[in-house]
Amino acid sequence: MSKEQLIAVAKNNLAHAEAGTIQQTEDFLKVPATNYYCPERWQKEIDQIFKRVPLLLATTAELPNPGDYKALEAAGTPVLISRTSSGDVQAFYNMCSHRGAQIMPVGHGNTHRFTCPYHAWTYNLEGDLTAIYANKDFGDLDKSCHSLTALPCLERAGLIWVTLNQSSTLPIETFLSGYDDLLAEFGFETWHHFKSQAVQGPNWKIAYDGYMDLYHLPILHKDTFGPDYPNRANYYNWGPHQRVAGPDPRLAQYKDLAPEDWPDQALTSGVWTIFPHISIASFDGGGRSIMLSQLFPGDTPGTSVTIQHYLMEYEPDEAQTEAALTQFEFLKYVVQEEDYATGLRQQKALESGGKPFVLFGKNEGGGHHFHHWVDLLLKTEDADLPALFDEHKTTFFSAKKQD
Predict the structure, then answer these.
(1) CA–CA distances in Å: residue 85 to residues 70, 80, 96, 165
(2) Cα 344 from Cα 307, distance rounded (Å)
(3) Which neighbouring-strand residues pair with 295?
(4) C-beta of residue 311 within 8 angstroms of C-beta of residue 193
(5) Residue 145: count of CB within 10 angstroms of its CB
(6) Against a cut of 0.90, is the pTM above it?
(7) Torsion of CA 172, 10, 370, 294, to 10 degrees
(8) Are 210 and 339 in contact (CB under 8 A)?
(9) DSSP-derived secondary structure for 132-181
(10) H/E element holding 182?
(11) How far is CA 106 from its chain centroid?
């Protein structure tokens, strides 16, 4: 079913290319400029979005083996993710049950136990407290009652989601809205993690707006890759998640093929966004690769940080490694010096109060959909979240066709 949907998307993009048409929304969208810098709204977005919905915090490629772990901070929450001896993935607050110290420093590694650097309390990969330093002196304690605090976690399609709320009643499967079935077509479970690096940016929504925007490509990126790309976009929605792809006449060479003969690259091209903070852009040349951009709000409303993860379908040889390094340095430059440099200047302009709103056009449907979901989550109570995602599970081909 997922491949059939991908082929339907490709054929729809081809039909637009051949007809010279494009998806358009019914009207323009005006987003209040204050939404990008108001401290109260920013805090509400962290509390009611980033700390309530599942976040994509790791990839299978980062933790391929039993004993592998990843420690990170997400929206101000220290998180520890581990692959257990049985091969399952679990997530915990990176927080010792004794005094609350962070157990593992930010980064990756492989271990058979986690030991707190403060008082050497020790936990296994499943989060169980297995040893208390100087137990006789400390006092008799039931270790089974003092395990690490687990967080909801799901590994699906070679990607790992974690909810930063131990009491969440929103199933991660429900949140994914079937989008994970489409992502599974990449086959990320067996891909190679090549490199990660951080880029500082503006308000998280300014940064995220750009990932769903093809309108700016031939303008902002005119000196890099922009001339090779059109400014027109089609948007396909699964719940709050979106795939962005432009009309592509090159797809005509595949339209009469059987489903099993469509090439993966033709079916997975474009930009895949996973609400509220992930963008996946695919590339070719020397083997398939992607840049998975993991966006988090910064310490203030006007800042953010993006961790760029580079995954390759196969572990590269020496020549491919050199080519990949060149490509990924180029991609970092584009985001840092073109997208985010522009976004940081945009941030200052918005904070000046010169305009009351930000305007999204009729072929910027990705922005319409994204901001609709931001507003929707800010007014939805915890108990109503599962029903909200069930109700909006699929709005496939939701945008209107117009010339």
Answers:
(1) 15, 16, 21, 25
(2) 17
(3) 306
(4) yes
(5) 8
(6) yes
(7) 60
(8) yes
(9) -TTHHHH----GGG-PPPEE-EEEETTEEEE-S-TT--S-HHHHHTTHHH
(10) helix 179-183
(11) 19
Which residues are CB-neighbours of 375 under 8 A, at least 6 positions away? none
For 42-55, write each residue's pLDDT tens digit.
999 999 999 999 99
DSSP state of 394: -
Q: For the CA atoms of the chain, what is the radius of gyration?
A: 22
Give the per-residue SS3 of 4-71: HHHHHHHHHHHHHHHHCCEEECCCCEEEEHHHHCCHHHHHHHHHHHHCCCCEEEEEHHHCCCCCEEEE
Number of H helices, E strands in the chain: 12, 22
Q: Are 310 and 194 in contact (CB under 8 A)?
A: yes
CA–CA dist 239, 379 (Å, integer): 17
Locate 141 and state its tokens: 């304690």
What is the distance between the terminal CA atoms of the chain, rounded to a whole angstrom? 30
Domains of the chain: 2-53+178-402 (3.90.380.10), 55-156 (2.102.10.10)
pLDDT(234) > 50: yes
Contact partners, residue 111, CB within 8 Å, separation at least 6: 67, 69, 125
d(CA 211, CA 37): 19
- Other CB atoms within a 10 A radius of the CB of residue 314 amount to 12
Is the separation of the CB atoms in 233 and 214 below 8 Å?
Answer: yes
Least confident of 89-93, 157-161, 343-347, 387-391: 387-391
- At CB < 8 A and 24+ separation, what contacts does 227-234 make? 232/22, 232/363, 233/22, 233/23, 233/363, 233/364, 233/365, 233/366, 234/9, 234/12, 234/13, 234/16, 234/22, 234/23, 234/399
CB count in 10 Å sphere of residue 163: 23
pLDDT at 398: 42
Alpha-carbon gap, residue 82 to 104, rounded angstroms: 11
Return the residue matching tokens 């049985």. 86
Judged by average pLDDT, the poorest of 107-116, 264-273, 292-301, 342-351 is: 264-273
Q: Judge contact between 388 and 380, C-beta under 8 A.
A: yes
User: How many CB atoms lie under 10 A from the CB of residue 244?
Assistant: 20
Ramachandran class of 347: left when φ > 0, alpha when ψ lies in -120 to 50, beta otherwise: alpha
For residues 103 and 246, what is the distance between their CA atoms, to the nearest angstrom?
A: 46
